[in-house]
Amino acid sequence: MSQLQPLPSLNRQFVSHFGEMGSRWGINRTVGQIYALLFLSPRALNAEEIAETLEFSRSNVSMGLKELQSWRLVNLRHQPGDRREYFEAPQDVWDIFRRLAEERRRREIEPTQSMLRSALLEEAQSDDERHAQKRMQEMYELIEKLMTWFDDVQRLQPETAMQLMGMGAAVTRVLEIKDKLTGRAKPKDPKVGKDPQD
Questions:
Q1: Is 109 left (phi over 0), alpha (psi -120 to 50) or beta?
Q2: pTM of the full structure
Q3: What is the pLDDT of residues 68-100, one digit of tens each?
């Protein structure tokens, strides 16, 4: 195999940062660095190239790639005349965000929704349980609304979704005006002080 060029300083910073952030996102440092390398790479890389560039063992790279495949964050490619497998990150950053959000939903949100549904079907045996069910119902309804919104956003074209996100501040201002007009605005926190515009 030909000797790979060392990572440029800027790329190395990005890869290192993703490794550090990995643990906060529920993945290990190795997986974070492999993903960052593939995200920045202008071409698909095989496991040997990844191991050599990051100075990881082949077994660590293999486990990291399997983890990334389970999250659907890398695509597998084959090249004519080469039996090795090559990996690349999806090119569209919106697609990456969508895949990550879908997997987090499947792994974290849906089990919580299922647990809440089961708990709400139970017959409360005491005032404490009735209070607990009321709180769980509030949580369940919020999650349901968020997931409905998420499904709606998922159906949008990437360009439209980006426009929607860009409208965030304007939409917030409109909703704040609506709350003031309908008397539903939250009272100001006296510790914070008055709004400079008041």
A1: alpha
A2: 0.66
A3: 999 889 999 999 999 999 999 998 888 888 888
Pick the closest to residue 66 from 105, 94, 42, 35 (CA basis): 35
What amino acid occupies position 82?
D
Cβ pair 88, 97 in contact under 8 A? no
Decide: 67 and 46 in contact? Cβ < 8 Å. Answer: no
Contact 136, 120 (CB under 8 A): yes
DSSP 39-101: HH-SS-EEHHHHHHHHT--HHHHHHHHHHHHHTT-SEEEEETTEEEEEEE--S-HHHHHHHHH
Strand pairing partners for 85? Answer: 78
- For the residues 118-145, what does the mean pLDDT come to? 95
Q: Which residues pair with 57 in a beta bridge?
A: none
Coil, helix or strand for 115?
Answer: helix
Q: Helix (H, G, I), strand (E, B), or coil: what is residue 9?
A: helix
- 1: pLDDT confidence band, cut at 50, 70 and 90? very low
Give the chain's largest Cα–Cα span.
71
Structural tokens at position 172: 């917030």
Record the tokens describing residue 139, joined without a space.
Answer: 């949580």
Q: Is residue 18 exposed (0-12), middle (13-18) or buried (19+ Cβ within 10 Å)?
A: buried
